[in-house]
Amino acid sequence: MTMGGHGTDGVERRGLMFVLSSPSGAGKTTLSRLLMDRMPGLRMSVSATTRSMRPGEVDGRDYLFVDKPRFDAMVKGDELLEWATVFDNSYGTPRAPVEAALSAGQDVLFDIDWQGTQQLREKARADVVSVFILPPSAGDLEKRLHSRAQDSDEVIRKRMSRASHEMSHWAEYDYIVINHNVDDAFAEVQSILKAERLKRERRTGLVSFVRGLQGQLQG
Ligand SMILES: Nc1ncnc2c1ncn2[C@@H]1O[C@H](COP(=O)(O)OP(=O)(O)OP(=O)(O)O)[C@@H](O)[C@H]1O
Ligand SMILES: Nc1nc2c(ncn2[C@@H]2O[C@H](COP(=O)(O)O)[C@@H](O)[C@H]2O)c(=O)[nH]1
């Protein structure tokens, strides 16, 4: 993938892929929305899915809602960077918008499961920063799924029964955040992104920046 752009300090830097995963209901969407509101230079990757739209969701903003034949055609046409089956539906990341954002020097935010994270890591390990969000307790997780009031009891039962399996992948992630309350969890996720943006390896413009400084000191 071609990547490059400028950080807020003007030094050229490679874009990064910032991944949030968690069991369903632990708070990825909530934290993603806050990141998008408050962190400049970040683009949300909008996934394609075959699941049906929830009340309040908007096609093209929350997901690209597609039918199974269209999803299969996207897989066949290599249009997806990664894809997986989650809760009996297909989900995948359209490749083109991600590559365009990274090329423009933007970071890309992903709300995807552990299967997708593994695929991204296989493709571009150095550019993937992954965060696993844990709920404070199973009781809180269930309460959050109910409080969202968008899924039937049957769907919630399914998501709760998958939670332990989802969580078994926590150790594959770079960072772990426990979402006790939204403000603290957001502050932690934001700190991770800010620190990762400053990593020396990503800041491709540092060599010439330091040479310039040395030139000024010598001249
Ligand atoms: N720290 C928190 N305390 C209380 N409620 C929270 C907290 N974080 C998120 N919630 C609420 O929990 C519900 C589920 O959160 P959210 O939709 O962000 O989860 P998610 O991980 O994105 O789930 P999914 O994987 O199913 O999309 C929402 O109603 C949200 O407002
Ligand atoms: N591997 C991928 N997983 C994805 C993608 N988009 C969303 N997801 C994950 O699916 C579940 C369920 O999401 P929901 O919106 O139906 O509650 C959740 O864990 C998401 O992170 C994707 O493109 N690829």
TrEMBL record:
Signal peptide: none
Predominant location: cytoplasm
Residues in Guanylate kinase-like domain copies: 15-194
Catalysed transformations (reactions): GMP + ATP = GDP + ADP
Record EC number: 2.7.4.8
Keywords: ATP-binding, Cytoplasm, Kinase, Nucleotide-binding, Transferase
InterPro entries, A to Z: GK/Ca_channel_bsu, Guanylate_kin-like_dom, Guanylate_kinase, Guanylate_kinase_CS, P-loop_NTPase
Top-level division of the source organism's lineage: Bacteria
SMART domains on file: GuKc (SM00072)
EC class (word): transferase
UniProt key word Lipoprotein: no
Chain positions recorded as ATP binding sites: S22, P23, S24, G25, A26, G27, K28, T29
Entry GO MF terms: ATP binding; GMP kinase activity
GO CC field: cytosol
Locations listed in the record: Cytoplasm
Family as reported in the entry's similarity comment: Belongs to the guanylate kinase family.
Function: Essential for recycling GMP and indirectly, cGMP.
Protein name: Guanylate kinase
Organism: Bradyrhizobium rifense
Gene (name only): gmk
